[in-house]
Amino acid sequence: MSDGPHFRNPPVVEVVCGLQFSGVEDWQTTHFGGFWQLIRTEYPQFEDHPPLDKLRMGTGPVEPEIAIMPPLRRVFFIQPPGNFLIQLQPNRILHNWRKVAESDQYPRFESAYPKFISSWQIFNKFTAEVGLTQPEPDIFELTYIDHISKVGAKFPRDVWDFMNFYAQTPEAVVAKESSAMAMHFEWSLPDHAGILAFDLKHGVRASDENEVLVIELNARGKATVVDRTMDKWFELAHRAIVNTFDALTTESAHKFWEKI
Predict the structure, then answer these.
(1) Rg for the chain (alpha carbons), in Å?
(2) Does 81 sit behind a cis peptide bond, omega within 30 degrees of 0 on the bond before it?
(3) What is the per-residue DSSP string for 103-145?
(4) Is the pTM of this model over 0.90?
(5) Judging by beta carbons within 10 Å of its beta carbon (0-12, 13-18, 19+), is residue 200 exposed, middle or buried?
(6) How far, in Å, CA of 175 to CA of 154, rounded?
(7) DSSP E strands: which ranges in 23-135?
(8) Which of 26, 125, 156, 241 has the highest CB neighbour count under 10 A?
(9) What's the rounded Cα separation, in Å, for the pair 204 and 219?
């Protein structure tokens, strides 16, 4: 894979770098506050959210987990005006860049990824200082979310103006134009690095009620592979995502996004 294309005006609205970890079984509610003290100057705002489900790799049977206590919350630590944030729960840490205002420019992976690494290093420092077991990385993940819109575009009718892997949407007996669509594909990443998932759907954007095509590309891989560092995995996952996005989208869309 190449390093990938570059667009002056990409449709990216969110990028999430993260990992699931094990080993911090003694994490308690008060630890959220202690961690916040280390990052409060940069991330002064916070929000409580329900925890994310545990990530799993493979297709084997899922063993039920019996919990004595309800799962702890997931906390967002937010850097104003809201573009960057850390998500933390007892087995997961993520760092997001998200588009808040229409004028926001995606800062590129080379700027977003180091912020995730910094948050992970601070988290490790905190667990050591308070006597918790050091977290052990389990699964890496990288997600790109794109909102595709254009004046006059209507979805799913115009989806193939932007996506290039089908010629047209199937027509049913009852109507020529479909009213809804959703697609999901998965591929293996190179070098047994995990999987790459592609999800496509359409909807209405809450901020301006414009129709949008939503694309999510998510890479996940085990963190326990020998000789594969975190940096190497995220570099591979990033290349896979951007090259797949480029391959699945049309040349006319590339011109609209100002491909370099």
Answers:
(1) 20
(2) yes
(3) T-----HHHHHHHHHHHHHHHHHHHHHTTPPPPEEEEEEEEEE
(4) yes
(5) buried
(6) 16
(7) 45-49, 74-79, 84-89, 92-98
(8) 241
(9) 26
Residues 163 and 156: their CA atoms lie apart, in Å, by 11
The token pair at 81 is 């005006």
* pLDDT, one tens digit for every residue, the chain (260 residues): 557 789 999 999 999 999 999 989 899 999 999 999 999 999 999 999 999 999 998 655 545 555 555 678 999 999 999 999 999 999 999 999 999 998 999 999 999 999 999 999 999 999 999 999 999 999 999 999 999 999 889 999 999 999 999 988 888 888 878 888 999 999 999 989 999 999 999 988 877 778 999 999 999 999 988 778 999 999 999 999 999 999 999 999 999 999 98
First to last CA, the chain: 17
Going by C-alpha positions, the residue among 162, 151, 158, 201 that lies closest to residue 181 is 201
Please tell me whether residue 217 adopts helix, strand or coil conformation. strand
Q: How many CB atoms lie within 10 A of CB 77?
A: 23
Q: Which string of DSSP letters, residue by residue, matches 160-205? A: GGTB-S-SSPPPPSS-SS-S--EEEEEEEPGGG--EEEEEEEEEE-
Rounded CA gap, 83 and 85, in Å? 7
CA distance 86 to 44: 11
Tokens of 250: 């049309």
Tokens of 68: 């004595």
- Contact between 240 and 232 under an 8 Å Cβ cutoff? The reply is no
Give CA separation, 117 vs 93, 112, 129, in Å: 10, 9, 18
